[in-house]
Every structure is written in C-alpha cells, then in structure tokens.
Amino acid sequence: MLEANPTLIQPGPPGPTSRAPLVLIHDGSGLISSYFWLGSLSRKVFGIFNPRFEGGGKWDDGVPEIAREYALMIKSVIPKGRILLGGWSFGGLLSLEIARCLLEDSNVSVIGLIMIDSPYPRSSISEFENFSDEFFAPEGSNPALQLKLQQCIQTARQMIRDWDPPSWHVGSSIFQESKEASENISPLNASLVAMPLSVPPSPPPAILLKAAEYVPNQDGTTNGIDVYRKEKRLGWENYEHNFIRVALDIKGNHYSVFAQEKAQQLTTKMNMACAMLDPRC
Hints:
InterPro entries: AB_hydrolase_fold, Thioesterase. By secondary structure, the protein is an alpha/beta fold.
C-alpha cells in the first residue's frame, strides 16, 4: 500500500501552469493502481486510496463521511485554487459528494468532474443485485490481498445502496430569503421577484466517460453495472440536477476500461475531458 495519501500520480509539466490539478478517487476496491496506467494528462494528478483498506474499507456514515474526510485530504495538498475531481465507478460517485462538501469552501473551487463509467446509483432492478465480482487485482497479489479487495468491493456496494446523491439546493439561504420575500410582496411588484437572485446552485459540470461494451455474464443476464448502459448518460437523467455536459464512449466494458491495451485511448479521452472542463489551460 502506498504511504502518501493523496498520492502524486503525475507531477505535471515543470514550471508555473494555469492548469487545474486533477484528483482521482479510488474505485470500489479502495485502490488507485489503475490510474497509474494513464499516460500524461499534462497537469498534476493526485490519487486518493481508501485509508481504511486494511479493515475492509468500512465507514460508519458511508459516502458522506468518506467525502468529508477526502475533502480535508485534498486541501492538505491543494489548499487553494481550481481543481478537477473524478474517478472510476465508485470513485466518480465519491467525487460528486466531495464536490458538494467543497461547495461553500472559499479557497478551493471544483471546476469540473470526470466520471469514468459511473452509473446513476438508483437502479430499478433490485439495487444492482446482479453485480459481477470481477476486478483487477495487482499483478502477483496474494490471496490475503484479494480477500481484502473483495471485502472493500462488497462494502462499497452497500454504501452505494444506502446513499442518496447530494442535492445542491439544501442549505442555500439566498433562495430561502428570496422565497420569503416573494410571499410578502404585493401583486403589483410580483414581477420584481419573478427571477431568482442568482443562478440556482448545481453540481460542477461533468464529463462522463462511458464504457461502450456490456460486461459478459455467463448466464446471459445483464450485469447490474450495465442496467443503464443503453442510456446516453448512464441513468443520470434521473438525477435532479442536469450536470453531465458530454458523454464520451471509451473502449471496453466497465471492468476492462483500464486494461493496459486500452490505456492510450483512455488517456486521449481523459485529456479531452480535462480540456473541456479547464479551457483556460
């Protein structure tokens, strides 16, 4: 297991740069080894692994607790400025919750999310009951490590079942004040409050990298991770916020998108996503 958390995966180009650093959050396994397959993203890239991996990856308060802790970890290496967040599968969901945690932070601004095949977590088919146990263990990993990986994956699935994607409307006092004002204003001046005082809060814009293939199941059934595979935005149309700007297809199925032979193509799509979210660079 790596020691530094967040771990610097790519140092980025030498010298001053205006490019926002990218922080990638671990997938359900709790590890970030897959992100080391990526080619250059021409910016600093950090990875956060599950610091509770050895204990099965458990967090008492689930995804919200993880997000609060990871937000603090991010600020330990990026105390201020613009940042990109993202991750594969569970990591994409965590990045959304972390962005909500950082919404009111005056020093750090999340300018975008890169969600790597992260489907909307509210499945209509028994809460993703038919998930595959397939995952990529580090080459040469021993049975004890594989058991911990399985424990972390099972824990992540349970946390996803228990999690509701965050609302950006909660806690927005400016809209409550606007609502109260509109209730007390005369009909003659009602038009003055017809428009909100500002744009309603919403998640940062996201780019979804979507696996083009289905996970093959031996019994011919649809894998739980593929419930929304036919949907352009992997089911996020059901979320209260329309935050996914673009969906880009990537080679492979959910579990093979980081395979070594697909690394170059995935890197190209990652760079495209970064450029769309960080056009000033």
